[in-house]
Amino acid sequence: MNKEQEGSWIRFDFEQARAKHLLFKTRLRSILYGASLDETPVVSHLECSVGKWIYGHALSAYADIAEMHELEQVHTTLHTVAKKLVDLYKAGKVTEARIGLDEMEGIADRLVKLLSTVEALVLINNPAEQEGSPANAIVINLKELEELQRLNQDLDRRIKEQSNDLSEARERFELVAKATQDAIWDWNLLTDDMWWNEGFKELFGYSEKEKGATIEAWTSRLHPEDREWVVKSIHAVIDEGGTQWLAEYRFARKDGGYATVLDRGYILHDENGKPYRMLGSMQDITERKKNEELLIQKDKNFRNIINTAPVAMLIFNGPDMIFDTVNRSMLKLINKTEAVIGKPLLEVLPEIKSHSIITNLNTVYETGEPYVNDERRVPFISHGLVEWRYFKLAFTAVNESGKITGVMVVATEVTEQVTARIKVEESNKEFKFVTDFMPQIIWATKPDGYHEFYNKRWYDYTGLTYDQSKDTGWNTVLHPDDQQRAGEAWKHSLETGNPYEIEYRFKRFDGKYRWFLGRALPLKDEAGKIYKWYGTCTDIDDQKKASDLLEEKVKERTRDLENQKNLLDNILENSSNGISVSELIKDEQGKVYDARTILANASAVKSVGIPKEVYLSKRALEMDPNIFNSPYGQACIETLESGNPSLIQYYLEAAGRWLELTLSKMDDNHLIHIFTDVTSNKKSQLELERTIRELKRSNSNLEDFAYAASHDLKEPIRKIRTFSDRLKNNLAGRLSEEDQHYFQRMEKATERMQLLINDLLEFSHASTTNTSLENIDLNKKVLQVLEDLEVAVAEKNAQIIAETLPTIKGHRRQIQQVFQNLITNALKFSQPGVRPVIIITASVVGEAEAHPDHPEIDENRKYNLIEITDNGIGFDQAYADQIFKMFQRLHGKAEYEGTGIGLAIVRKVVENHKGFIRAESQPGKGTTFKIFFPIE
Description:
It is a single chain. This protein is an alpha+beta fold. The chain has six domains: about 5-165; about 180-285, PAS domain (Beta-Lactamase), CATH 3.30.450; about 290-415, PAS domain (Beta-Lactamase, 2-Layer Sandwich); about 420-540, Beta-Lactamase, CATH 3.30.450; about 575-675, Beta-Lactamase; about 770-935, Histidine kinase-like ATPase, C-terminal domain (Heat Shock Protein 90), CATH 3.30.565. It is built from 31 helices and 27 strands. The protein has a five-stranded antiparallel sheet with strand order 2-1-5-4-3, with helices on both faces. A hairpin with a 5-residue loop joins strand 26 (about 915-920) and strand 27 (about 925-935). GO terms for molecular function: phosphorelay sensor kinase activity. Keywords: Coiled coil, Kinase, Phosphoprotein, Transferase. This is histidine kinase.
């Protein structure tokens, strides 16, 4: 091959590489516009025709040319970008993939330039013949040219179609942006420009001018509490290369309110992965949010009801019956803990896997039909053994938005009841076996009197069958003269539950009658409800005949009783107290609705001031329609129901008298009334109460006077002190020692008078009840008092130790008086030469500690106990009460200054707060003041 031929071949070789490269770009563009092609030569730099030329020929043939190596690197980068674009296209990010073609075009241009550069260098260097052998040349054949032409034609068609589609899509987007109720937005991430559709105005009320065209128009309208986290969240998605953003936040309306919106955004990236645009929509979910919160609250309330329900309840979720909600009663019933929540039923209770209860649960879940069973036998594993228990079960489908999501279970264990019933059935068999051998007639009825059982003795005596005897069949053998009496007695027992006892005659199978003693008692449950009657009939015919012999004696005894009755009547008629008997009239439910007097002595008639014939003939409501609303009427009903006697004073308006009545129960329908005319005593009592009210008013006036007098006396004392000081100053140097002594005595007397007036004024304040209560932190109050007494504490070098004190309800100024007077008192009465130590503690005590001598007081009452203890001179405990009285002093004025009013003020303040104070002391061992404030 000559040089000219060799150069021509080289040019042909590189032209073929350029053509293959063009085929690669066309294939890539066709793939990104929807063509179904083999993507391997596009995404793999080794499978590409140019790649095969580079690695199979050119890289070794032109190894000494540096640009050839750069060409290989650019070719590899080109396919890497191509693979990224294909992956984006497959992921549905078509726009991003097609935009990436521009980036790839730049790399492709670099590849073509490098091909030209390498070609030129090869021609200059004239490489060896074997290196440029046509056998190794890259060849593009006719088929590839035809494919390139077909791909170009197909690509043109697809671009044209997709351009039309894009135009339609843009038009459709504009229509959607106008038609949707959502606010559509378009954010240019490069310029921060922002576009909004008409929905923004509809949702938030802003005009076209008010919308704003930058991202600031959006961020500035975020709720202040949401702004920081929303902005951070959207930038986090953008910065991390994410493609989707979702947030729920509050956005300002033009009217000043806030809408809750659900905002979705989609981020577009260029071929380098750089975000350049973001599209999104804002949906107003304010009402939906409110409804969701309401549903959440309802669900919370519903689950709270379940959790606090006294019956065992739980909710299973899903077809696997996952424990969703279970209350304490249910956990206790199945002997499990809250760890079962979130676990399937069969994992928690594997022992019921093959039990039909699983089928029942599934049926309720699938059909929505409820299931109820009053006596379901269910196995449980206890201590490794299967234990069968009985339950009353109710399964109900849980329906949310028309879809069954679970099953609610309500369970009540009835194992004891069922076991008891089974035992009763077994006992009934034993009962029949035993009663059949008894000589008496034994029978049993239902609560309504239906006879359902007779023993063998009945059938042997009467000759009747069960069908002839059941229900009221027993009446057929009863003597005709006894039927009405026996029926009424039996009816009364059924209605009242009272024991049944009667003597009657039964006809024997041979037609003869014999006397029987019939007795029956009701069998009641724990609630007192009758669920069966058991009776016996004992043959007393022989005893009955013998009793006739005693009849005469009975008559004699009856005459004696009659005489006793006459004696009792005489006592009633001659008694000075009114005595009457009333019958309480009840409705069918046993409730008292009226009454009448059936017996009254002369004193009773006189006391009520009503003619006897009216008193005994009229009902209570006829004489006083409101009688049962009065305290007297209520006392009558209370005594009848409880059986406890009552004592009440009642003003009888018709007679204008006060009566004191003692009410006693005679039986379930009758009361005995014993009353005395206490009109004169009552008038005295009312007069006394009026006098007490007047006394309280007088005391109040005296307190007001003391307050005013103490206040008005301050001015004269002040003038005395002022003029005394002036006189003393004017006579300075001219006063004898005796005159100066007189001035000193006058000043001290004035100071004592001033102190006394101040204390009287403070006592007046303490005596004035202040209804305005507030919370007082005693810790702060003690600190304030110590600040006021700072000089006195320093002079005494006193140590004050105060523990943590409670907060109480009280009058701020009066509470300060308490602590100020008690601490001042402790400082004043300290021991000479001993550093005063004052300790203030607090605790909560009960009624027993507060009132150890009065155990009848409510034991549940609690008190805040404040103790103030000092190490002062103390006093004899015999004077513990005297020290709280006005002007009471245990020491002379020469020893300790004071007015004797301070502790009286303390007691008055404590009493104002419904508390009380005690002092405990010993001479030389200090004093403890204990203050009890009731805890409201």
